[in-house]
Amino acid sequence: MSSNNLMNYIAGEFVRQSSEDWMDVFEPATGKQFAKVPHSGPQEVDQAVAAARAAQPSWGALTHSVRADWLDRIADSLEAKYEDIAALESRDTGKPIALARAVDAYRSVANFRFFADLVREQGVERFEMSDATNIVVSKPVGVAALITPWNLPLYLLSWKVAPAIGMGNTVICKPSELTPMTANLLMETIHEVGLPSGVVNLVHGDGVGAGAPLTSHPDVDLVSFTGGTATGAKVAAAASPQFKKLSLELGGKNASIVFADCDLEKTVEGVTRAAFLNQGQVCLCGSRILIEDSIYDDFVEGFVDSVESMKIGDPSDESTQLGALISAEHLQKVEGYVSIAREEGGEVLTGGSPCLPKEFENGNWMAPTVIGGLPVDSRCSTEEIFGPVVTIHRFETEQQAVDIANNTRYGLAGSVWTGDLEKGRRVAEGIDTGMVWVNTWLHRDLRVPFGGVKDSGVGREGGRWSLGFFSEPLNICLKSNKISNT
Ligand code: TXE
Predict the structure, then answer these.
(1) How many angstroms is it from 92 CA to the middle of ligand 1?
(2) Given CA atoms 120, 121, 126, 127 in this order, what sign does their dihedral have?
(3) Taking burial as the number of CB atoms within 10 A of a residue's CB, which of 55, 178, 302, 325 is the most buried?
């Protein structure tokens, strides 16, 4: 068996699945198969849930401070593998190595460190009454299913694992079958540091084989899911009848609103980054750019120049800014939207096929694409494309900008670019969304709530919101009989 045939991690052991059913993992940049993952089914899910259930009472009984020390040990060990994380993530997802290092490797380590500190600070809340004292203690929820997508594999998995185990839960991870490599590396790390067996388990496989049995499993108490909106609806339908605790981080169709009083140069740079980071495959990406009429032509000229100057190609080259899309199917979907845009009357201002060396000709490549001239309610302007394709639109008034921003089923994020912070805040408050950045984008503070409204999801994670989601508050009211008999 090749070393790139990954195994499930259950009860502290790397285990072979029961069948010889494997799924191929492809390198997005070249289209070549380079690894296999088990195509696990309900049997593997049952084993992993049983391991997590068995480990939960003793893990949950440890103090916050002891569990925080474990998170720090995992962070230390992951930090030593920083370059491996970046290289694996770049190969597995097709993203540029510089981005994989600065974003994926950095945040994966930072997530464990951040939650170690936050969990360690957890105390018991007290509310005094005239004749009694209430204390609120945080108890673990139990066994958690953590399901993650392919765009930021370890970044998002660590964002869930750290607070979940930090609060005393035990977990089963189900990473995307398209990008399993760094989840495997996390299991190796956890094994190396000697985390008690069964606290973290991992089942590889697809949504139907492994994801669905996990979300409907009667012994799973909590589901944290990040992925597409259609899949999120299936997860909710499976988990809700059993009243599992549920958090859904789904898609987005975020607006970048550009006012005439912005700093044009910085805004062009920021809006370009917001549109195309990770090839536009981030749920927070600003894929609809709304521009105030009086600067429309100047902005568009600068923006198209900026987009055309981005270097696309070999993800392992340090100077690459745009890599490959995740899969051939996804490329087809994204290209399909460009055809739809043309049918809807849109004009492609830049984009088309990138010109790349021969070794990449079977990869999933697409040049960054900017589309103008579409109505604000067209499909390309309202549906999530999740690729390097943006639409641009004009507005004349603040209210018009807000109305266009809200003209979608999604409500995850957004950005406003203006020299007037009062206006920035006012416009931000008008948008039905979970997060808005003013004069910046993806400027993350791990303490703040992360999540969306409408079809972008249910619930918030991040900082104390994560700790709240991954725990159950128990209120105990203590009244001493000695003080009074009333
Ligand atoms: O994600 P899926 P896909 C959006 C984006 C993209 C679309 C589909 O628009 O084009 O979603 O992407 C597991 N029960 N986002 O198909 O299917 C699956 O195995 C339980 C936005 O790749 O949502 C994987 O581990 N689990 C997003 C995870 O769900 C199931 C990031 C996500 O896969 C399941 C990625 C089921 N029935 C895509 N079916 C974001 N919010 O950032 C699948 N899975």
Answers:
(1) 16
(2) negative
(3) 325
